[in-house]
Amino acid sequence: MFTQRILIDPGFNFRATVESHGWYQLPPFQYHPEHGVLSRVHQMPDGRIVRIHVEQSGNTSRETFLLVQTEGDVFATDHAVIDAIVRRMLCLDWDLGDFYALTRSLPDYGWVDRAGAGRLLRAPSVWEDLVKTLLTTNTTWSQTINMVRKLVTLGGDSPFGHAFPTPQQVAVRDVAALTAHVSCGYRGPYLHTLAAQVASGELNVEQWSEPGIDSQTLHKQIKSLKGFGDYAVASVLRLLGHHDVLSIDTVCRDMFARKHHNGEKPTDAVIRAHYEPYGKWRGLIMWMDVIREDFA
DNA sequence: TTCCAGGGGTAGA
DNA sequence: TCTACCCATGGA
């Protein structure tokens, strides 16, 4: 067992971040809320498969930190890689100062920074977040879990279980066999095409998480992927830290009808108009409305 | 049996 | 830009 620590801001809330959306229910994540531990089977760059456990540990008198423990064939030289993985998964490098200033100034959002909400759980790679988002489209959440479970069996195996498959491991499959294996129906060809484009190097999706790319450019590139429409593009953009577009889905429409529209079904234009005043944070403000019952 | 889910592609106007 | 229709899958 290899142990390391990551110093975090005292306002960071591990549970609020892990439970910020459904990703913690999708393998190779495992979450034990009773212990406050998020685990993940992970394939290192050289192919070794390890299991990483993360928890928010001890508030010492002045410092708050994450305790990161890694099982398996792991060395001190892996420190930097594991540190980067955890930072990305929990959006530790997001600067939400302006966002919290905004929520504090609004009458109904004082709970946001008190709860430490606003950060999201992400996969360590853009590839994995893209695939999982694709598998949330036009299906139920339970079927998304089912599809991801089956997909993950294509990843490298280990005593800890399977890691998330690489683009190569998906791309080498026959499209029909992949579709049948994952039970993903018409999404199968979209999944296979994405895997093939990433595996071949034709598409470098990991660079999308680099800072400084404007969201319009990203929007255009993600939208060009088969299977990624308005909802999915905005979902991925949100995970990439761009909150100026709304990811409107049935969950959002239901929430909006209840909270802002007297129980009546809103059009998407009505929803967009409502959040427009929140500018570059509008997507995250909308998501706070969705998750409010869980954390407020 | 029919409907629909954390929608999206395509054709035709 | 907008609409109609189609798309697998499985639970309600």
Q: How would you describe what is shown here?
A:
The protein is α+β, with helices and mostly antiparallel strands and 296 residues long. 44% of the residues lie in helices and 12% in strands. It has helices at 14-18, 79-89, 97-105, 110-115, 126-134, 141-152, 167-171, 175-182, 187-200, 215-223, 230-239, 250-260, 268-275, 282-295; strands spanning 2-8, 29-32, 37-43, 49-59, 64-71. It has a five-stranded antiparallel β-sheet with strand order 1-5-4-3-2, with helices on one face. Strand 4 (49-59) and strand 5 form a beta hairpin. The mean pLDDT is 96. The protein binds a DNA duplex (13 and 12 nucleotides) through helix 6, helix 9, helix 11 and helix 12.
Spans with pLDDT under 50 lasting ≥5 residues?
none
Major sheet, described briefly?
5 strands, antiparallel
Query: Percentage of helical residues?
Result: 40-55%
Proportion of β residues?
A: 5-15%
Gross morphology: globular
Structural class assignment:
alpha+beta
Q: What is the alpha-carbon Rg in Å?
A: 19 Å
Could you give the distance between the termini?
Answer: 36 Å
Query: What is the β-strand count?
Result: 5
How do the helices and strands follow one another from N- to C-terminus?
EHEEEEHHHHHHHHHHHHH
Give the neighbour order of strands across the main sheet. 1-5-4-3-2
Number of helices: 14
Overall pLDDT confidence:
96
Features:
14 helices, 5 strands, about 45% helix, DNA-binding
What's the topology here?
Elements: E1 2-8, H1 14-18, E2 29-32, E3 37-43, E4 49-59, E5 64-71, H2 79-89, H3 97-105, H4 110-115, H5 126-134, H6 141-152, H7 167-171, H8 175-182, H9 187-200, H10 215-223, H11 230-239, H12 250-260, H13 268-275, H14 282-295
Antiparallel strand pairs: 1-5, 2-3, 3-4, 4-5
This protein binds a DNA duplex (13 and 12 nucleotides) through α6, α9, α11 and α12.
